[in-house]
Design a protein that fits this description.
83 residues, mainly alpha, rod-shaped
Length: 83
């Protein structure tokens, strides 16, 4: 198999994993917000304190994986055109 095919496949995997990570982060954030609304003390819901970094980290990591995947696919396509 050519190098560009492997690079394009790896880029596609990064894109899929990134999308899944972003969706998972959104789901986690929604679940935490819904759980907080059941509390009688709404201070935590309004101020988001204490901070819970997991959903944000999932979303940021997902966007990074998507951008790396897109770059890998583009580079793979460029190499396919050149070779």
């Amino acid at each position: 198999m050519s190098e560009w095919v492997i690079l394009a496949i790896a880029g596609g995997v990064f894109i899929v994993l990134g999308i899944l990570s972003v969706l998972w982060g959104r789901k986690e954030q929604k679940e935490m917000d819904e759980a907080l609304t059941t509390h009688t003390d709404v201070r935590e819901f309004i101020s988001h304190w204490p901070e819970r970094p997991q959903p944000g980290a999932l979303k940021i990591g997902g966007w990074i994986a998507i951008s790396i995947g897109i770059l890998m696919v583009i580079i793979g396509l460029i190499l396919w055109g050149v070779l």
